[in-house]
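Notes from hallway chat w/ T.B., transcribed later so I don't forget. T.B. wanted the structure written out for a chain they're using in a teaching module, and asked if we could keep both sequence and structure tokens in one place. Agreed to drop them here.
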Amino acid sequence: MSAILFPVAANADEALAAPKGRAVRAREAERLAGGAVTFVTELVGPAFATREAALDAYAGRLDDDRPGRGALVAPEDRYLAIAERLEGGQPPGPVEPAFAEGRRWPAARAAPPATVFRLMVSYWRIAGAEAANAVPDAQAREMRRRAEAARLSAAELRALAQRPLRPVKPQQPLDVGLFESPAPEAPHILIPDE
């Protein structure tokens, strides 16, 4: 089975048009970039109203499963994908039950926002390019309470949201149930008594 050769580039547009090279593993990408790299997946290019329009625009670069087309990309070139996104904000929130005139739910507020299709490229981003998109070193749950949170750009918010959460306090020991007991030879393993 072939591995995917991901582009090595400073940004998504460069990864799509003219990467420095392509690599499977991080150490190969670091060799091509001449420094540290991180693996990212970003949206690139214009938005399309339908999936078919997006597939037509990027013909030959994506798998096309439509009848009559049947185009397949080589396994090592599968670093592109089509993503469906909401256009114009968030979907409408939940509605409160009305319980009026024999009906439980009120009429729908508005039509949900339209969806668009965009190209997603996965690539090795060169570490020097990350300095431009630096994010404060804080957790999202801490950052939302600070005054500086209002000044974050959309890219900084996305990067902050994709960070793994750090624990607030150490994990508590396992809660041993009524019908469980620790094994004498391995106290970290619980054995059911029933």
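Follow-up for T.B.: The mean pLDDT is 81. Might be a good example for the class.
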